[in-house]
Amino acid sequence: MSEEAVRTPSMTFVILAVVVFTLFCYIDIGLQMAVVPLFVREKLGFSSAMAGFAVSVQYLATFASRIGAGKRIDTGGPKRVVLMGLSTGVLSGLLLATAGVLTSLPLVSLLFVLSGRIALGFAESWVATAVIVWNIRRAGVSRTAQVISWNGVCSYGGIALGAPIATLIYHSVSAPVLHGFAGVGLLSAVLMGIGIPLAMRQPAVPPLEAGKQPSFFTVLGRVLPYGLALAAGSVGFGAISAMLALYFSDQNWSGAAFALALFGLTFVLTRFAFTRQIAKRGGNAVAGVSLFVEALGLLVLAFGHSALWADAGAALTGAGFSLVFPALGVGAVAQIGPESKGAAIGAFSVCLDIAIGISGPLLGLMIPLWGYGAVFQAAACVSLVGVGLCVILKRRTHLGL
After folding, report:
1. Is a pLDDT exceeding 80 seen at residue 176?
2. Ramachandran quadrant class, 202 (left: phi over 0; alpha: psi -120 to 50; beta: rest)
3. For residue 257, what are the domain limits?
4. How many domains would you assign to the chain?
5. Distance (Å, rounded) from C-alpha 255 to C-alpha 248?
6. DSSP letters for 252-300
């Protein structure tokens, strides 16, 4: 697409036509995030650590599939990879629906839950990464920050939409089919299925000229300084996604889905209000401030002893985490040539996947010893480490290193 087309007012609609597939994917993630830990612990009778692992295994699967996702995108085209991801998302929902009707066999049901979560991890990797590259190539490299920001709006806006819907379905007993955990799984499958014909209608971008592709680990080495800072911020999101619902349940508070929705809402509003600051202030500076705000939100969660304070902490954490990915992602993508943007996004996102994937089970092991407050304190400390990494990146950029 020409630079003239990039400047047309309709470019936002061009981006939205594709980023809607990220929205479908993350509504599914929000649906499952709100009820999977409760189902594993309360319905199946497993520990909090296993409940946290059931959430985090999705991100471990995302990490495992991200390595190949970038190359598939660069060689086969992003549209094809999006369709693969949506199809796998349908499978994920069907596996969870099956788990919901097998509660009398807890271990078998757990295996279906874990299989469904792994399938969703693959779906997230393929859809989210491919949508970003698809839109960068449709809108132009100059729109990278805008593309990443819209992707994030749909990501965490989807979580904000999905979480309360899942809670209503999970606790419902009146609907003939769409109720309980099985109902959440069926809705997940339907949403991803709706995306398949819509994706097929969108034009594929022409393939880039073939050239020598750097290895994944070469690309990872180039983006790693930015990825480490991203990982530091992602631990806080991992703590909230895996532990917030259990925290509310442990304290006998209602409204965990509302807190997750607040996290997503402030995330989206912050993206809309402050994305332009990345170009004005520089990505490293914006990421540093964002990580500091995230740390404050996690500390409010750690030391606030009411549902109201937990809501405030979740909202502040969402606002802080909002700009971390696009602020650092612009610098990460700039390290790689245009022929390997998919690999760059994939390698950069791997750092997020690892951080979220390991944070759930590791932080879950802290709960029997020190309680939920310690989980959010630890995550806050890691976010502050990320602030220090951003300061180092900013100095390196200033010195031209």
Report:
1. no
2. beta
3. 3-206+214-399
4. 1
5. 8
6. T-S-HHHHHHHHHHHHHHHHHHHTTHHHHH-HHHHHHHHHHHHHHHHHH
